[in-house]
Amino acid sequence: MSKARLEAFSDGVMAVAITLLALDLIVPTPGRVPLLTQLGDHWPEFAAYAVSFFIIGIIWVNHHARMNLVARVDRTLLFLNLVLLLFVVLIPFATATVAAYLTTGSTDSHIAMALYAVVMEGMALSFSAIFEWSLQEGRSHVHVPARQRRTTRLRTSIGAVLYVVVFVVAFINAPIALAITGATAIYYMFAPVPRGMPAIEE
Amino acid sequence: MSKARLEAFSDGVMAVAITLLALDLIVPTPGRVPLLTQLGDHWPEFAAYAVSFFIIGIIWVNHHARMNLVARVDRTLLFLNLVLLLFVVLIPFATATVAAYLTTGSTDSHIAMALYAVVMEGMALSFSAIFEWSLQEGRSHVHVPARQRRTTRLRTSIGAVLYVVVFVVAFINAPIALAITGATAIYYMFAPVPRGMPAIEE
Amino acid sequence: MSKARLEAFSDGVMAVAITLLALDLIVPTPGRVPLLTQLGDHWPEFAAYAVSFFIIGIIWVNHHARMNLVARVDRTLLFLNLVLLLFVVLIPFATATVAAYLTTGSTDSHIAMALYAVVMEGMALSFSAIFEWSLQEGRSHVHVPARQRRTTRLRTSIGAVLYVVVFVVAFINAPIALAITGATAIYYMFAPVPRGMPAIEE
Amino acid sequence: MSKARLEAFSDGVMAVAITLLALDLIVPTPGRVPLLTQLGDHWPEFAAYAVSFFIIGIIWVNHHARMNLVARVDRTLLFLNLVLLLFVVLIPFATATVAAYLTTGSTDSHIAMALYAVVMEGMALSFSAIFEWSLQEGRSHVHVPARQRRTTRLRTSIGAVLYVVVFVVAFINAPIALAITGATAIYYMFAPVPRGMPAIEE
Questions:
Q1: D53, D58, D88: which is closest to D156 by C-alpha?
Q2: Which residues from chain D sit within 8 angstroms of residue A21, using beta carbons?
Q3: CA distances from D189 to A69, A79, C177, D177 (A)
Q4: Partner of B123 for a Cys bridge, out of B87, C142, C147, D189, CB 3.0 to 4.6 A?
Q5: Average pLDDT for runs of 10 along chain C of length 202
Q6: How large is the ipTM?
């Protein structure tokens, strides 16, 4: 199994998943309710769509940054990568659930947003597992000294910690929890890469 | 992040989005209304399908023409490209909405077509932003002299201006606005490339 | 625009279209009608699915055989290729329509099958157009002498003629028209390649 | 037809099929039934999703391992590969059917699980056919001695045998049949590769 194939397959899955997000946007139907009102009522769909779109986008960017360092592919990596993709593919489902419940104001709006956080947590933890796998001798192109390892581990763990926060905030205010998720995705997009880490251009 | 990966991912998203267009063609159901009548009643679906198909096709062609010139990928380009894809992925949704409302003859038919123009405008502006990004020193393989820069900027802006026109026409006559969009996509397909610009063969 | 990109995009669209075929298989729902009865009643869906699957498969094989010979990509080829893909992407829609009407025994079953033939004809004609395009001086890697040109043109036209036959048979017996389509796809899969034509291995 | 294209197309189909699995997860709708109850009632969907996800994942891994050895592509291989993909693309349909019936406790729950086993059996047999094809002189990069051939044939047949077992167990206890399928997929993921067989890294 070459690394190129692993990346191509992962890219394919992520490209399909990011496009399927739009399938859950409910097409308005002509009838009594004016079109603009229907679109307005569905704002949580559009918000959730945009947030999830950038999250999958950032996963894709980070996935490549990580894979660039990997020197060889073994079955454990294939398995961890499948688990990661399993959660990525669940994102459209979680997004549609949040969109359906976000403005109901009921307990379920909190639970829907918490479910979203759980899917993201699964994704973040799979990513951390791939990172830990890559630290073992001979699995990466570059030797990461112990100190940098800590910095990088910290950086990689931010996602996992963040989604725990989102999970908690979900039970206080679901829309704010969604906004935090979106803001973090944008932040991550431009976050400075720590020294010694491979720059994105490489 | 190599340019090849950016292109491959964008290709994947556009290939899925262009194919999803056909998912919104409502499959006729056996019953009282004859099949031909059903197909005839659904002509806006087929018209909107064809127009959007060529628009995504032309985006794909132009995306490559632009990326061919890019010398290096940074996070800003990744972000702008994601914004572009976010609008591309919205095209099937906007297309289905136009198809549902085009022949209702109500105010909503105008609003549906205007919504379509807004999605296209978002796409055109993302494209212009990528172009402006590419003009900075060191980001492109070729140095574009100030004069040509103006010509190319003009050419790139045509789309952004066009969709403002489509937006306005939408409120006068929605089907004509759709026809203008389609005609322009076909025109763009064969439009002569200004001298000094990279030919498509390169 | 490199040929490799054109092929990759076309491959992507065909891979998505062939997979979307299965989306139109109606998942049975628990209720009064036993599962086996439901599956049995839906046999036209499975038959149409299998036929369309092999047709898209054979288009994909032929597309590559043709593209292998192409020496350079211009806007006309890009446009013809988009028209070809437009019909490929319509195949799941046409398949679902045939599946819905095939066993209704009404006039509409004939019309549904005729619609299927029309989509296939559009696809075959786009393919012929691409072939004619490739004959012009300098567009192919190999010079095809006038005589072979005629043989190859004949071979390429078989599809276009076949679907006219299928169209006619559709009005006599729709299931037989579908069976003819399927049989031809399988035949084409193994049809000997005329001498002088590029073998599939190349 | 180059091997690279065959692999890329197969990868594309599998990437779409694995992502479409999530489309069959029914998005809960706000109403009388609490969200958590709805999610709980739908546990067979999530279980079937996870099992099918890993099965398609393992098919993908094995497909590459096999294709790595193939020296040249002919029409028979193209055909066998299409048959394999035809069954892969049916997996989301079979998965959704199992998910709908698994907990109905009726005869149909057994039949749904048996249908699932039939689709998997078709996939496993296509895989065995590709293996037998590859044994012929000149079709593989490596010469497989008669003895190893037997070992490898045995290994390749495990899937085909397994799904017969799953088929039988389906009529005794459908959830257990599903669990066996999932457990085997995970086992296969980590199963040691017999000596002389190409390791996954190559």
A1: D58
A2: none
A3: 23, 7, 44, 19
A4: B87
A5: 85 95 90 91 92 93 86 88 96 94 89 96 93 82 73 79 94 95 83 48 31
A6: 0.87
